[in-house]
Design brief:
The protein is mainly beta. It is built from seven helices and 45 strands. The strands form ten sheets. It has a 22-stranded antiparallel beta barrel.
Length: 696
């Protein structure tokens, strides 16, 4: 039976907000935690909504913003953590990609990599064309060197093109800080980070380097993997490097992000000490900005290369039931562990131009275009099966010394996950912002995208923002599409999946009505939204895709809709105490979608020099795990997770801190689609980190 989450949510007396009301207490040089008033902080501007700087309350989108200072007070380290504190977002750990967290947005979760969310870093796209998402290939994005995070809740394809479907996340790097940070804590965690910046006349340089690793939480056995019931752990290793230079109108940056996740259940597979997922991401972007009176021009180019390397357990040493005789098991009755995985490289090149022309003090015209090429290398299987012997004899025997080989053969025919390939896309957009009168503005925009593999698509947007005294009303409309990924349209059979070359882009039309109220120490926002989906994509079981094999295939299954509301309220209760929180309710969801009907979050920040204390928490309602449980539908329980962060200024240059995650050591579970994991995946318990930050 469903519980009463709204009553429990309100019982905490939560308050919330649409902008970061205490966003910049501290300067980048010192730890003055309470420098600005709430009223001043309400003037923070964002670029993600229109491509031009606008106050949050006046932007023709539903936007949430977090600044670096606020994220540090909350103890938030990665984008995965932060999104639990954004209305409409629900982050859930999954085993599909080795324990990463993936989002659902406004009651929609299309897959396990977040392919409906576009993520930008200083203007560059981070989405991976093979999966379409970010949260697998570019996992656990660090926020340590991010100055501001801007999130559009809703479609953005009229400005940004494909995959700006349910949300757009814009990460703006920090170019001014200089400090060293050291932390250590639970699970033998160790972290070191360096930020350095300097300016010589017109030349400025900033550098960031970070390394974090831990041994992971140890979990008692919770999963029966073919008769093996063993404990596991989830060690993590993250390495980041970022170098940026600016000279007059020129800018260039290089980014490196490396991740390794080991041992934890992945795709229903388990192989302790042999299971891993490694990702390496490199990105180079150059740009030039020029301004002449009322005309601004930005030209840019970027190139990225991303490697993905995974090894998973296929059969344990003594599987139960005995698979001897299966065409996918050892032919020679070996008792050796069988592993498999894949390895790939994907690259993208993109050039573009963005311009704005102030035709009149009340009229701004924006336009631009882009060209992008996405390509992938051969994406073969890798396994400890002797592939040469398999090709010659059709027999599966293990390699010597557990060596990994690439390729796979069925009846003498080689199968790879992806053949080398590419696609080219082009896009043009036009947007008009018109302030009709002092308190009324209109925005209209359109974009045309053309892909050489599935054709063209047009996206439109329109918005009206009307202000009356302390009230601001928004009426918004937006369209978006999600380009089918390489994995959906070009992949061979693997792990029960097969591609669909005839897949059409998913489409969404979104209508929003928003009311914003603001006065000296309070502001609130209520947003109602309606999403109508066309060409909805879902996995459908297909027989005999290869003789004798069945697999799930992504197919367009028609249309559906989701309706919901988001409420936010920021309040300064005193000169020392500020609260921010939000609540989301989904009135109607898509059938069988693993999303919560109710979500909530809060962050309470108290400052009295030299201390800063922050208590934050988020609530996730129960989630459908499976429709085919012993008693019909099986739900995973709802939960609250609380975090605490404490910081003390020792000197103007030195601060000590302690961050505690899952303060109550709550035992909770998140959904896995795998058979045998209907009761969900366990999450980490209480974790504590202590450290010091020294300003340079």
């Amino acid at each position: 039976m469903k519980s009463s989450p709204l009553v429990r949510f309100l019982s905490f007396g939560l308050l919330g907000g649409s902008v970061p009301c205490w966003a910049q207490f501290a300067s980048s040089e010192h730890y003055d935690f309470f420098e600005l008033s709430l009223e001043e902080l309400m003037t923070i501007t964002v670029d993600v909504s229109t491509g031009t700087s606008r106050l949050v309350k006046n932007s023709p989108s539903s936007v949430s913003v977090y600044t670096k200072d606020e994220m540090q007070r909350m103890g938030v380290e990665t984008l995965d953590q932060l999104l639990n504190f954004v209305p409409g977002f629900q982050m859930s750990r999954t085993d599909a990609e080795g324990g990463v967290s993936v989002p659902s947005v406004r009651g929609r979760q299309s897959n396990t990599v977040g392919r409906e969310v576009l993520v930008l870093l200083d203007g560059a796209r981070l989405n991976d064309p093979i999966t379409g998402g970010v949260f697998s290939q570019d996992r656990q994005i660090t926020l340590e060197n991010i100055q501001q995070v801007e999130i559009i809740r809703g479609p953005g394809s009229a400005l940004y093109g494909a995959n700006a479907f349910s949300a757009v996340i814009n990460l703006i790097s920090d170019r001014d800080s200089s400090n060293i940070k050291l932390r250590a804590g639970s699970h033998n965690a160790q972290e070191a980070a360096l930020q350095w910046s300097h300016q010589w006349s017109d030349l400025s340089v900033s550098l960031f380097a970070q390394d974090y690793q831990d041994h992971g939480e140890h979990y008692p056995a919770f999963y029966d993997f073919q008769g093996q019931f063993e404990p596991t752990q989830d060690p993590i290793h993250r390495t980041d490097f970022y170098l940026q230079g600016r000279f007059k109108g020129f800018s260039a940056y290089y980014r490196l992000a490396k991740r390794t996740n080991e041992d934890f259940i992945s795709g229903g597979a388990q192989a302790i000490d042999h299971q891993r997922i490694k990702t390496d991401n490199e990105l180079l972007r150059v740009s030039y900005q020029h301004e002449v009176t009322d005309f601004k021009l930005l030209v840019h180019g970027e190139q990225s290369s991303s490697d993905y390397d995974t090894v998973l357990g296929l059969f344990p040493e003594n599987p139960v039931p005995d698979p001897t005789g299966s065409p996918l098991y050892w032919t020679n009755s070996s008792q050796q562990l069988m592993v498999g995985g894949n390895i790939r490289t994907v690259e993208h090149e993109r050039v573009g131009m963005d311009a704005s022309w102030q035709l009149h003090p009340d009229h701004l015209l924006s336009f631009g275009g882009s060209w992008m090429k996405e390509e992938n290398s051969l994406n073969p299987f890798q396994t400890n099966i002797d592939i040469d012997n398999l090709a010659a004899t059709g027999q599966l025997v293990p390699t010597d010394n557990f060596a990994l080989e690439r390729g796979f053969y069925i009846a003498g025919v080689r199968y790879d996950l992806l053949e080398p390939g590419d696609r080219i896309s082009k896009g043009l957009y036009l947007q008009d912002e018109w302030r009709v009168v002092e308190n009324l503005s209109l925005t209209a925009g359109l974009r045309h995208d053309k892909y050489d593999d599935f054709g063209s698509h047009n996206s439109y947007r329109g918005g009206m923002v009307y202000s009356l005294n302390r009230h601001t009303f928004k009426l918004l409309y937006g369209e978006a599409f999600r380009a089918p990924s390489f994995a959906e349209t070009r992949a061979g059979i693997a792990s029960g999946g097969i591609s669909n070359p005839d897949l059409k882009p998913e489409e969404v039309d979104t209508y929003e009505l928003s009311w914003h109220y603001q006065r000296d120490m309070v502001q609130s926002t209520l947003t109602l939204f309606h999403n109508h989906y066309e060409n909805l994509v879902k996995p459908v079981l297909v027989d005999d895709v290869v003789p004798g094999f069945t697999a799930f295939q992504p197919q367009n299954v028609g249309q559906d809709e989701v309706n919901g509301l988001e409420y936010e309220l920021d309040v300064a209760l005193s000169d020392h105490l500020l609260l921010r929180s939000g609540y989301t309710h989904i009135f109607k969801t898509i059938d069988s979608e693993p999303v919560s009907d109710n979500l909530g979050f809060f962050s309470a920040n108290y400052h009295r020099h030299p201390l800063n204390l922050n208590l934050s928490g988020y609530y996730h309602d129960e989630v459908l795990s499976t429709e085919n449980g012993p008693d019909g539908k099986t739900y995973l329980d709802d939960y609250w997770i609380f975090n605490a962060s404490m910081q003390a200024e020792v000197t103007p240059e030195v601060a000590l801190r302690m961050d505690i995650y899952n303060l109550g050591d709550v035992s909770y579970r998140t959904r896995s689609p795998q058979q045998g994991l209907e009761e969900g995946l366990p999450a980490r318990g209480r974790t504590a980190l202590v450290g010091v930050t020294v300003q340079l």
